Structures are given as C-alpha cells and as structure tokens.
Amino acid sequence: ISAILQEQDLKNALDWRHNENKAFIQRAVQILGIPKELQRRVFSMHYFQKMSHDIEAFQILFDGKNLSSALSSALKVYLYQESVLSCKYLNEKDPNYII
Predict the structure, then answer these.
(1) Of 5, 7, 33, 94, which residue is least crowded by CB atoms under 10 Å?
(2) How far is residue 93 CA from its own chain's centroid?
(3) How far apart, in whole angstroms, are the C-alpha atoms of residue 15 and residue 86?
(4) Alpha carbon distance 3, 22 (integer Å)
(5) What would the 3-class secondary structure string for 15-74 be?
(6) How far apart, in whole angstroms, are the C-alpha atoms of residue 10 and residue 6?
(7) 1-49 pLDDT tens trace
C-alpha cells in the first residue's frame, strides 16, 4: 500500500507541476494577445507533451547531477537506437560496444 501511495503522490506532483505551467502559459498568451486559434495550438502541444513527453521529468533524469556521463550516454543510445545504430559507422555493431 505504501508503494501505491508513493506512486500516486509522484503522479500528483507531476500533474500539479503541469497545471502550474499551463497557468503560466495561459497568462502569457493572454498578456501577449495571442489569437484564440494559436492559443489552442499552444495548449494542444502542452497537452501532448504532458501525455507523452514529460519534458521536466526528462530534464531531471538527464541532469548531470542525477546520472554519470556513461549512464546518460547509454540511455540516449537506447532512446535513439533506431537513428544512431543505423548510421553507416555503427550499422551492424553490437550496441553494448557502442555504449
């Protein structure tokens, strides 16, 4: 039960942060007089990032204080393996060798 509660707390913290960022964005587009259609696009992008690419979580993960450079490189190779491993210099090489 403790692990479930901790997981919910983490999700709530990220949701709270996203809502806070959304409020800042909303205020900025109002101050700048951005047209409603463009505002809709801005918020659509914000929602997309919230649902599939949590930028803040990625920034914290890849912050130099949280990972060694070797581990950061290994994660990046894993994440971008389709493009990295398909380049002519690394094609057909063992991913463990590249890391």
Answers:
(1) 33
(2) 28
(3) 36
(4) 29
(5) HHHHHHHHHHHHHHHHHCCCCHHHHHHHHHHHHHHHHHCCHHHHHHHCCCCCCCHHHHHH
(6) 6
(7) 777 777 777 778 878 888 888 899 999 999 999 999 999 998 888 887 7
